[in-house]
C-alpha cells in the first residue's frame, strides 16, 4: 500500500562538495535508493564537483563505498550499484578559482532539469552562484540547493539571501531543512488538514500546551568548532524546531501549494512573542559515566555555549493566545528521541470518581525513532473491576497500517532531492521565513550574550538541568518522559 513511484524528469545534478561528509552519508545513498526504486530516470547524470583532486575513477570508488556503507543490503546487489555508479562523474573545481568551470559547462546537457547542490560551507555560496552565472551554466530554470546553517544571525542570513538573489530568483532556491522531509512531518499536515476530527480542537480553547523535544545521546565530538560557535539555539531551535512549531501552529493553507504553506508558517513566526529570561533555561553537559564534559570535548575551559536549551514560547494570535509551546533540545541526554506532543485540556466535567488515573488526551507525533503518530485516549480498563479508567495509545504507526513496506520509509534527503527535481518547494524554507526566524532568535541570543551567564550544568544521561523541569513545574505542567521509542 505504499504509494506508486512516479519517475521524475531526467536531470543533471551537480553536487558541489561531492567529496564531503554530507555527500557521502546522505546525498549519494539517497540518490541510489531512488535509482533502485526506478525513480531516477536512466538519462540522468550526477556530477560531483569539489576541490579534492580526485580522478573520476577515484570519485566513483568514493561514491560506491558511501552507498555500501550507508544503504542496507547494497552489497547484495552490486549489479544495480554498478549501474548507478555509471551515472556519476567528477570535475575538480575550486569554487573561488576559474579552473574546471568550462569543463563543467560542457557536461551540462540541454533539455534536462539542472540542479546544483551547494554541499559546501555557506561562505562559498556567493562564489558558486556567481560562477554558475558567469560561465553560463545555470539558466532561469536551474535550481540550487543550499544546506544549513543558513546564517549565524539575521544579518548574515540576509547577506546570504542577497548573494543568492544576485543570480537566482527565489523560485529557484531550495533551502534544506531535512526535518521537513521526514514522513511524519508531512503526515502531521495530512492528519491536521485531511480529517475533520482534530482541527476544531486545534486551538487555545482545547489545547493545554504543546511540547517539542529533540533529544540526542551523542555529544559534540567531531563538530566541536562549528558547535561551539552555534550552540543548541542556532543548531536546532532557530531552524528545525521552529519549523515543527510552525507546522503545528499554522492556519490551514488554502491549498497544499509551496507559497500557500510557507505564507502560513511565516505568519506563525511573526506572531511569536519575544522570549523573556524567565522563559528560557540553558544547559551544558558535564562529565560522568566515563564520558567527557562539553568543555573537555571542545577543549575550551571557558565556553558558555549551551548544549541544552528549554524555551517557553507564546504565539500571540487568536488561535493560540494562552497556549504555551515548550521546546527542549540537547546533547548527551537520556535518550535519542524527537517528538511533538499536543496535550489537550481536561474534560470540563468529570463523570468518574477515578481522578487519579486520569491523564490528558495527547496527540504524539514521533519523528524518531519509530516514526509515527499516536493519540493517547482514556478508556475503561477491561474486566469486572468496576469503572476504572486507563490511558491507551491509538496507534497510527505506519508499520501497522501500511504493512511491512510501511516501515521502509525513505530518508528525508531522498524525498527532498526528488522534490528539487520536480520543482516543488513546499518542503523548503523560503528566504523571508529564514529571516523571520532569525529576527525572533537574535534578541534571545543577544540577551544571553548581554547577561554573560553560564549555562546550568547537567549530567550526561539525564533529561537536562533541573531548572528545565522547573520551567514546566511553575506552570503546573511536566515534560513527558524522555525515552527511546
Ligand atoms: P565537508 O567538510 O565534509 O566537505 C566539504 C566539501 O566541500 C568537500 O567536498 C570539499 O572538497 C569541498 N570544498 C571545500 N572548499 C571548496 C572550494 N573552495 N571549492 C570547491 N569545493 C570545496 O563538509 P560537509 O559535512 O559535507 O558539509 C557540507 C555542507 O553541508 C556544509 O554547509 C554543512 O554545514 C552542511 N551540512 C552538513 C551536514 C553533515 O551531516 N555533514 C549536515 C547538515 C548540513
Automatic annotation (TrEMBL):
<keyword id="KW-0313">Glucose metabolism</keyword>
<feature type="binding site">
    <location>
        <position position="182"/>
    </location>
    <ligand>
        <name>substrate</name>
    </ligand>
</feature>
<dbReference type="GO" id="GO:0006006">
    <property type="term" value="P:glucose metabolic process"/>
</dbReference>
<comment type="function">
    <text>Catalyzes the oxidation of glucose 6-phosphate to 6-phosphogluconolactone.</text>
</comment>
<feature type="binding site">
    <location>
        <position position="216"/>
    </location>
    <ligand>
        <name>substrate</name>
    </ligand>
</feature>
<dbReference type="InterPro" id="IPR019796">
    <property type="entry name" value="G6P_DH_AS"/>
</dbReference>
<keyword id="KW-0560">Oxidoreductase</keyword>
<dbReference type="InterPro" id="IPR036291">
    <property type="entry name" value="NAD(P)-bd_dom_sf"/>
</dbReference>
<dbReference type="InterPro" id="IPR001282">
    <property type="entry name" value="G6P_DH"/>
</dbReference>
<protein>
    <recommendedName>
        <fullName>Glucose-6-phosphate 1-dehydrogenase</fullName>
        <ecNumber>1.1.1.49</ecNumber>
    </recommendedName>
</protein>
<keyword id="KW-0521">NADP</keyword>
<feature type="active site" description="Proton acceptor">
    <location>
        <position position="240"/>
    </location>
</feature>
<dbReference type="GO" id="GO:0005829">
    <property type="term" value="C:cytosol"/>
</dbReference>
<feature type="binding site">
    <location>
        <begin position="17"/>
        <end position="24"/>
    </location>
    <ligand>
        <name>NADP(+)</name>
    </ligand>
</feature>
<dbReference type="InterPro" id="IPR022675">
    <property type="entry name" value="G6P_DH_C"/>
</dbReference>
<dbReference type="InterPro" id="IPR022674">
    <property type="entry name" value="G6P_DH_NAD-bd"/>
</dbReference>
<dbReference type="GO" id="GO:0004345">
    <property type="term" value="F:glucose-6-phosphate dehydrogenase activity"/>
</dbReference>
<comment type="pathway">
    <text>Carbohydrate degradation; pentose phosphate pathway; D-ribulose 5-phosphate from D-glucose 6-phosphate (oxidative stage): step 1/3.</text>
</comment>
<dbReference type="GO" id="GO:0009051">
    <property type="term" value="P:pentose-phosphate shunt, oxidative branch"/>
</dbReference>
<dbReference type="Pfam" id="PF00479">
    <property type="entry name" value="G6PD_N"/>
</dbReference>
<feature type="binding site">
    <location>
        <position position="51"/>
    </location>
    <ligand>
        <name>NADP(+)</name>
    </ligand>
</feature>
<feature type="binding site">
    <location>
        <position position="148"/>
    </location>
    <ligand>
        <name>NADP(+)</name>
    </ligand>
</feature>
<feature type="binding site">
    <location>
        <position position="178"/>
    </location>
    <ligand>
        <name>substrate</name>
    </ligand>
</feature>
<dbReference type="GO" id="GO:0050661">
    <property type="term" value="F:NADP binding"/>
</dbReference>
<keyword id="KW-0119">Carbohydrate metabolism</keyword>
<comment type="similarity">
    <text>Belongs to the glucose-6-phosphate dehydrogenase family.</text>
</comment>
<feature type="binding site">
    <location>
        <position position="331"/>
    </location>
    <ligand>
        <name>substrate</name>
    </ligand>
</feature>
<feature type="binding site">
    <location>
        <position position="235"/>
    </location>
    <ligand>
        <name>substrate</name>
    </ligand>
</feature>
<dbReference type="Pfam" id="PF02781">
    <property type="entry name" value="G6PD_C"/>
</dbReference>
